[in-house]
Amino acid sequence: MDDLLSDFLTETNENLAELDVALVKLERNPSDQATLSLIFRLVHTVKGTCGFLGLARLERVAHAGENVLGKIRDGLMEASVETVGVVLHTLDRLKEIVTALGVNGEEPQGDDTALIAALDALVEGKPAPAPVPAPPPAAARVAEPEPAPPAATPATTAEPVADAGNANQTIRVTVDVLENLMTLVSELVLTRNQLLQLARSNESGAFTAPLQRLSHITSDLQEGVMKTRMQPIGNAWNKLPRLVRDLSHELNKKIELIMLGAETELDRQVLELIKDPLTHMVRNSGDHGLETPEQRRAAGKPDAGYIKLNAFHEGGHIIIEISDDGRGLPLDMIRAKALSRGLASETELANMPEAQIQRFIFHPGFSTAASVTAVSGRGVGMDVVKTNIEKIGGTVDLKTTPGQGTCFTIKIPLTLAIVSALIIESGGERFAIPQLSVIELVRASSEAGSETVIEHINGTPVLRLRDRLLPLVSLNGLLRLRAQEKTNDDTFIVVVSVGATILGIIVDRVFDTEEIVVKPVAPIMRHVTMFSGNTILGDGSVIMILDPNGIARATGIGGGSEHHTNAKAEIAQTDSSDHVPMLLFRAGGQTPKAVPLGLVARLENLPRARIESSGDNLVVQYRGRLMPLIPMIGIDLSSANQPVLVFVENGRAMGLMVDEIVDVIEDRLEVELNYGEPGLLGTAVIAEQATDVIDTGYWVTRAWSDWFNKSGENIGREHKPRLLMIEDNHFFRQIMSPILSAAGYNITSVESAARALQLRDSGVCFDAIISDVEMPEMNGMEFVQMVRASGPWQDLPIIALSGLATEDAIADARNAGFTDYVEKSDRDALLQSLQQCLSQPISV
Q1: Please, what is the end-to-end C-alpha distance for the chain in angstroms?
Q2: Is the pLDDT of residue 670 over 50?
Q3: pTM higher than the cut 0.90
Q4: Cβ neighbours of residue 452 under 8 Å, at least 6 residues apart?
Q5: Is residue 208 a contact partner of residue 132, using CB atoms and an 8 Å limit?
Q6: Which of 325, 342, 326 is nearest to 291 (CA)?
Q7: Which of 12, 375, 444, 821 could bridge 491 with an S-S bond, Cβ 3.0-4.6 Å?
Q8: With 50 as the cut, is the pLDDT of residue 756 above it?
């Protein structure tokens, strides 16, 4: 293929992609002259270039389409749904011819008579013939995603030029050239790391300065090459307006597509790998998620449903949310399907939390569709979506509310080539953990009374980290490595996030972070899902890169595991239905006792020497304060260590002294007998054994008589009004947050209206909102109108902040839905407005 034809194909593919979006936009707004002129110019360009290159068939089809567009542009024809539909068929035919031209180097044979006749009929003002047969649109071809294609696709090009004036400032470069350049930079990074390692072990300082300079140059070069690979995620969304348009007609549904954050950039390789998963998930939302107009009206919803895509950067990741306001996932159908396919028993399903049941949709071959259609029902889809996303180190999670909709959240890395990693050691072997997955490092001590002590519940190691039970995984045990002799009793724990789950990985040593070049896993080791790749360190040694998703799956903790939970998963999953996690213990007798685990802040095993007397009371110095201890009746006070259940509320703590902590179990809590004994609610059957359930309120009030006092300083702190501040100016947020906090408000501040809507869709509640009016992307007016339209924040007080306080601006803000309007510089007025809005119902 000569260079001229190659350039033509590149430019034409860009024009056709732009036409897809523009035609759907024109269909919604037929009077948009700017869009109409753009469409005509693009088709005219394609036609003119075809004639120059002697591409007769392509020229004929493009010329017939240009005639129709000319009539519409001149106002002689209406851009109706039927007319635009025929033009879209024409566009599909052009794509088919161009695709074959790129493969074979010449136009394919084909008969376009019927299509051209339909276009000519429209030009003559006659009704178009019956729907013209055309190749399936791109949307249909990707309904069920296949495994991700290879990253490098020659002729893939950079972004189209914004205008002709800038044409001389851009060049076209094939992806192969960029891939080779990235490979060379990767090798340079490895060499740089090796030289730095040698410099650290060499006492001579002669090479220090040149190596530092080399390191800076390498980092700058790496950053520059990475920028050439970065593309806005909107490039992966270009086909979605057309897809949704076709889907809307095919399913007889009214669907509105909302795309936020299209300018968010990520690596081109990652972009290619997520195109198919995104396409499938959008189709899924339209088919399974959204109802028909009749069903929506019956449910009190507007006829048109929405599918919303939102992309943003968060902690070095790209977060992509695909949400809809449809019916939500049918949990009963999912349960029935899982039972019929033998994925879980009735007992297991009855004990599963809803979040885990929902994740059955990611199981291979799983589908709840009643019949196979052109859109869905074949059972091939969501498992491939999940697999492709996890291949690039990402995670996919979901949240659904019956009758309100579903939101899928995809978390993927910015790039796959060079990443920052934490180097650790376990069993004498070093490993790398991608730093994007690491939340924090914890050093757990074996000393009793320490804030970070590893406990064992039913044989499972757990860590009580800031009032949350964290499931632990021993890397030595998981990878069957030899145990190393420890020089001290401390244990290192790497806390990582896997989707919505957090777990701790127990390791022997923690070194430092290092930029590593990711190499694929050898075929012989691809069955070991705990590894995502390998790399070469600065000292020349080859180490494996750990995959937190694979570790989670191997141990059954979150991470997309669709199997039944084990002891660790029961700790990680706390959202059970009618089952309550309970702590079993013994105190003063053989009958076991229980308390709901959610009430217990911490478990302690205090040395007897630390317990002191204050009059007739027992106390312990605990976290810088005195904590009262209350012994349960009949317990043994002569043991060397004292097990204690710690309860915390409103800044106060008390310890309940018991004999032995037995287990954590999840079961129904139904008190059947009550003998009126002080300190006990009664007796229930827990784990098939009669168990006394203690009255926690009785014991905490023995330590603090005003524990449940509704008035006073502590309760006031607990019931601070929750306030959301939306402000894109970081400096202003930093000024206002402490002022509002000092005034008695619990502040959450975000930088954009889009981020605020994410909080709303996630179910976060507030008492009031203050929002800047002038913001990029979505301004305050658009935000308040969207909030007032529907949803849980519909009736909240919303105060507008602006540097402009004219009468017209205030009137516009109130008409849009704001409760009040305050000038940014007037802090006293803002505090007064908040006080008034929170003391009386709003009226908008």
Answers
A1: 65
A2: yes
A3: no
A4: 442, 443, 444, 445, 463, 464, 465
A5: no
A6: 326
A7: 444
A8: yes
